[in-house]
Design brief:
It contains ten helices and 38 strands. By secondary structure, the protein is mainly beta. Helix 4 crosses helix 5. It holds the Pfam family Peptidase_S9.
Length: 655
């Protein structure tokens, strides 16, 4: 690589393996409970342990799960929603799944946990619990049951204080977001059937718990072709997020997740509860995220019928407030919440987990319309090295590129090489690292990421592509990839690279591409279909679509029916799209990085293709699953990848 350190610059960039192995923490799932603010905190310095942490009304911080607990669940592999909390007088009760011990547990004020529900049952049955919701002592959640023969099924259950379990709903392939109404009479939940995913077709259901047990579908459902998710209550009014087109939508309406509302009533001649659709104006941005994990919260009700939402506009997070009299407007300017902010007891201030592009994640408190300098940083996930200055951090620039077919424009986040005193300087145009996000139903994030800054602090530009199929741009943009995975995503990544080359932003002779999981398939396909890239890295990536359809876990078992073609009827399409079918087309060097405990994309996928590519290498990380979690592994994988590209650039590998 042609680079040189300018006068006065350090010999090492500020993003070092040592910094990455300092065990930087991460935050998720913020809640407001009885005047407290609670969140889940992952601690790599404690072997990746997840803890529920609370900020008391007096401002002090407390661990609310005991040291021996590991809060988490592997339901759907990706987990989420593994805890719920409620104040009982002076005590804070936390009920949680434990990913190490299994089962459900409860702890008061972080003291020793007591078992609530077992991890195993008779005849080798295994139970998993997720999407916990606790209201007035009543716990509801999703339960997954796996038999000794490997058969899996799900239901919704209610669990009392003695651990007695009552099944409330069963029969659907999948459930999510069980939420009790404030008076306890109704249970709202989301359900869907194979071959759909939660972002393709789901239904919003309400069950009457008062005795009749009647269950109604209020929105979406089988054959409706829309995704409804994230139900929440405001008194007797039920809200959810739906990407169905409003009844009065004009031709060309851009369908996207936006709040909808329903209110209960009674039929004139009976006691049957009916539900009235309460029209709301669509939000001016997509309010929702693909439900890869449980426990996400993107919208909440405030007093007076107001709504607060965490949304995405053109791939960039925004916070929106809906006032019944005046409609939607932007609030929290400059803040980047991960979830919807939660109101504090005074009604004026809010707390949120902030993930900006230029600072570490932090718990923040402030008012919706207050100035940025008036916001209080309560707790940081980690600290930047003290010598780092603003110029050392590369910031995202949103770029768009015209497309000839289908919805557009194509969007990407572009990062120029950082120019600070603790970064490598580049002589001439910089090399380019193209990032292909996973999913493929996902999106390029804009928060400060070591996985971006590692490259930009070393003289690389980075292009993080929101190829069509990504979320945050509406349903049409997301659905454009249906039946075209391995084709349209490759086309879009190549188009974005051509765009930055045409703008003169990067060196066209030093473009490389990297992708994880589904993004790995895009990487390998791009190397086979284009000469834009001199090398590529597949991180736990897909190489054999037929094998993936046969081997992957229950949640994604029919995912490929929509992305590729119906399985197994269209097996020929799976073979034609699989990199394993045409290794001779991949002539550029490839680095494969994979964990040997991957349940989503088995290690055998990477091994099978790597053996057929002379200019390739494979490194396996023992004990790692789908997505590297250990800080040492993340640091090592990036160091290997950097050395790989530098060898390619200097000709030490046969490109």
């Amino acid at each position: 690589m042609t680079s040189a350190l300018s006068s006065g610059q350090l010999s090492r960039p500020w993003v070092t393996p040592e910094l990455m192995t300092r065990r930087t923490r991460s935050f998720a799932e913020i809640r407001a409970v009885g005047g407290w603010v609670l969140w889940q905190e992952r601690r790599p310095d404690e072997q990746g342990r997840c803890v529920v942490v609370g900020r008391a009304p007096d401002g002090t911080l407390h661990d609310l799960t005991p040291p021996e607990a590991q809060v988490g669940t592997d339901m759907h592999v990706y987990g989420g929603g593994a805890w719920a909390a409620e104040c009982h007088g002076p005590d804070m009760l936390v009920v949680f799944s434990d990913s190490r011990k299994g089962g459900l547990w409860r702890s008061f004020n972080g003291r020793e946990a007591q078992p609530l529900c077992p991890a195993t049952g008779p005849e080798g049955v295994t139970y998993r619990y997720a999407d916990l919701s606790l209201r007035d002592g009543r716990l509801v959640c999703v339960r997954e049951v796996e038999t000794a023969t490997g058969e899996e099924r799900a239901d919704l259950v209610e669990i009392d204080a003695q651990g007695t379990i009552r099944s409330l709903q069963s029969g659907a392939d999948f459930y999510m977001s069980p939420r009790l109404s404030p008076d306890g009479r109704f249970l709202a939940f989301i359900a869907w059937q194979n071959p759909h995913m939660p972002w393709t077709e789901t239904g919003l259901h309400v069950m009457d718990l008062s005795g009749s047990g009647e269950t109604l579908c209020l929105a979406g459902g089988m054959g409706q072709g829309c995704s409804v998710m994230g139900p929440f209550w405001d008194g007797q009014r039920l809200y959810a997020l739906s990407d169905a087109a409003p009844a009065d939508a004009l031709s060309g309406y851009d369908r996207h997740w936006t709040p909808v509302a329903f209110e209960p009533g009674k039929a004139a001649d009976s006691g049957t509860v009916t539900w009235r659709d309460c029209s709301l104006p669509p939000a001016p941005a997509e309010v929702g995220l693909p439900a890869w994990v449980f426990g996400q919260s993107c919208c909440a009700a405030l007093s007076g019928g107001w709504l607060l939402a965490r949304a995405v506009r053109h791939g960039v997070p925004v916070t929106l407030l809906h006032e019944p009299e005046s409609g939607w407007r932007n609030v929290l300017a400059g803040a980047v919440p991960d979830d919807v902010p939660v109101p504090l007891g005074d009604g004026e201030r809010f707390a949120w987990l902030n993930s900006p592009p230029d600072a570490p994640p932090a718990l923040m408190i402030g008012t919706l319309d207050g100035a940025a300098q008036e916001r209080e940083i309560v707790h940081r996930a980690w600290e930047l090295p003290p010598e780092v200055v603003a110029a050392d951090i590369a910031l995202p620039e949103t770029l768009s590129f015209p497309v000839e077919d289908g919805p557009g424009p194509l969007c990407a986040q572009f990062y120029r090489p950082a120019q600070g005193p603790h970064c490598e300087a580049v002589m001439g145009k910089p090399p380019l690292v193209v990032i292909v996000h996973g999913g493929p139903t996902g999106q390029a994030r804009t928060d400060l990421s070591f996985k971006v800054q590692w490259w930009t602090s070393r003289g690389f530009a980075v292009l993080d592509v929101n190829y069509r199929g990504s979320t945050g741009f509406g349903r049409a943009y997301r659905e454009a990839l249906d039946g075209r995975w391995g084709v349209l995503d490759v086309q879009d990544c190549c188009r974005a690279v051509q765009g930055v080359i045409e703008k003169g932003l990067v060196d066209p002779q030093r473009c490389v591409i990297r992708g994880s999981s589904a993004g790995g398939l895009t990487v390998l396909s791009a190397l086979a279909q284009s000469d834009l890239f001199v090398a590529g890295t597949s991180l736990y990536g897909v190489t054999d679509l037929r094998g993936l359809a046969e081997e992957t876990h229950r949640f994604e078992a029919r995912y490929l029916d929509g992305l590729v073609a119906p399985w197994p009827e269209e097996e020929a399409v799976y073979l034609a799209r699989s990199p394993l079918s045409w290794p001779e087309k991949i002539t550029a060097p490839v680095l494969f990085l994979h964990g040997d405990a991957d349940r989503v994309v088995p290690l055998s996928q990477g091994q099978a293709l790597q053996k057929q590519l002379p200019a390739s290498s494979l490194h396996v990380y023992p004990g790692e699953g789908h997505g590297f979690r250990d800080a040492d592994v993340i640091a090592d994988s990036l160091a290997r990848e950097l050395a790989f590209y530098r060898d390619v650039f200097t000709g030490r590998r046969n490109a």
